[in-house]
């Protein structure tokens, strides 16, 4: 599983011109699911998202989590995180999970974040989405873990 976390002061996602998800301060989470991913990986990723201290405290240090600040997460499915660009001119997506597994684990990630008390908004799985954001910092983190990592 790969999750790109972008610290934002605001973010939104639209499908066919209609805004379907919007947050103020928090994370835009671009979520990619791979073949080896499972519920344990999703649990780890949700917990890491909730506690990662990249929001500033009163001294201007990155010392607070999205949970600490009462922030939100806009979770957007993003299979292209598994694009392999090493050969040729067109990415290969053979490492991305099947759409059914990806949907199941993406929805589980959203549910786990909500279970941790985080306000979560989403895009529409497998839709052509337009994402808008104001990256705060900019601060962008890549979280990566597979079912075989220990």
The average pLDDT is: 96
Assign an overall shape: globular
What is the H/E order? EEEHEEEHEE
Question: How many H/I helical runs?
Answer: 2
Query: What is the percent of helical residues?
Result: 10-25%
CA distance, first residue to last residue: 14 Å
CATH superfamily caption = D-tyrosyl-tRNA(Tyr) deacylase
Provide the CATH architecture: 3-Layer(bba) Sandwich
CATH class: Alpha Beta
Strand fraction band? 35-45%
Count the domains: 1
Describe the biggest sheet? 6 strands, mixed
CATH topology: D-tyrosyl-trna(Tyr) Deacylase, Chain: A
Overview features:
single chain, 150 residues, alpha/beta, D-tyrosyl-trna(Tyr) Deacylase, Chain: A, six-stranded mixed beta sheet, 39% strand, globular
Structural description of this entry:
- The relative contact order is 0.31.
- The protein has one domain: D-tyrosyl-tRNA(Tyr) deacylase (D-tyrosyl-trna(Tyr) Deacylase, Chain: A).
- The protein has 150 residues and is of the alpha/beta class.
- It starts with a strand and ends in a 6-residue tail after the last strand.
- Helix content is 20%, strand content 39%.
- The protein is built from two helices and eight strands.
- Strand 1 and strand 2 form a beta hairpin.
- Strands 1, 2, 3, 6, 7 and 8 form a six-stranded mixed sheet that branches. It has a two-stranded antiparallel ribbon with strand order 4-5.
């Amino acid at each position: 599983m790969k999750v790109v976390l972008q610290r934002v002061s605001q973010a939104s996602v639209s499908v066919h011109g209609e805004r379907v998800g919007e947050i103020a301060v928090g994370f835009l989470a671009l979520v990619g699911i791979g073949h080896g991913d499972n519920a344990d990986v999703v649990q780890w990723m949700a917990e890491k998202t909730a506690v990662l201290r990249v929001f500033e405290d009163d001294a201007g240090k990155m010392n607070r989590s999205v949970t600490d600040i009462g922030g939100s997460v806009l979770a957007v499915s993003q299979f292209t995180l598994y694009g392999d660009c090493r050969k040729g001119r067109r990415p290969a997506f053979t490492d991305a999970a099947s759409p059914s597994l990806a949907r199941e684990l993406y929805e589980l990630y959203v549910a786990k974040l909500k279970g941790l008390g985080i306000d979560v908004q989403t895009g529409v799985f497998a839709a052509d989405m337009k994402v808008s954001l104001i990256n705060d910092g900019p601060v962008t983190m890549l979280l990566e873990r597979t079912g075989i990592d220990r």
